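testing teh design pipeline on a random one, pls ignore if ur not involved
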């Protein structure tokens, strides 16, 4: 899979994924217009939404309604390191959710692929290369 990251203007940086565009922007406080999530916000949201798809699939496979299920994600930010040191997911289940599946839902959420990447992070390589600029002669 390949993403094409391009600059839209101001502080807007977008990613083209196939035919889809993922838009990002910086907050107004960071010099952006605040019209799209910041890249780091999308990163954090990927954790909860990934856990969510595993919870939803668990319910679907058992014929359990997922209506009313919410995941509340919170973060503990370390001021000295300027990094998040703890992420918590609280799966809010409706009152009629079967008790026998409550621990299994937690196990399902733990299958999240995004979370698994924290335990075995990928190597990230960054390089530069030249862009081929194609110019067209208007006199042809």
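output:
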């Amino acid at each position: 899979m390949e993403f094409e990251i391009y600059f839209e203007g101001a502080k807007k940086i977008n990613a083209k994924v196939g035919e889809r565009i993922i838009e990002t922007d910086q907050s107004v406080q960071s010099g952006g217009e605040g019209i799209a999530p910041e890249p780091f916000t999308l990163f954090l949201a990927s954790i909860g939404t990934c856990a969510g798809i595993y919870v939803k699939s668990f319910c679907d496979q058992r014929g359990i309604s997922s209506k009313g299920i919410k995941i509340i994600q919170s973060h503990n930010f370390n001021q000295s390191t300027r990094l998040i040191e703890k992420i918590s997911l609280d799966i809010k289940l409706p009152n009629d959710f079967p008790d026998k599946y409550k621990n299994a839902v937690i196990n399902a959420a733990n299958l999240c692929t995004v979370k698994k990447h924290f335990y075995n992070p990928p190597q990230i390589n960054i390089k530069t290369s030249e862009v081929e600029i194609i110019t067209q002669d208007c006199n042809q």
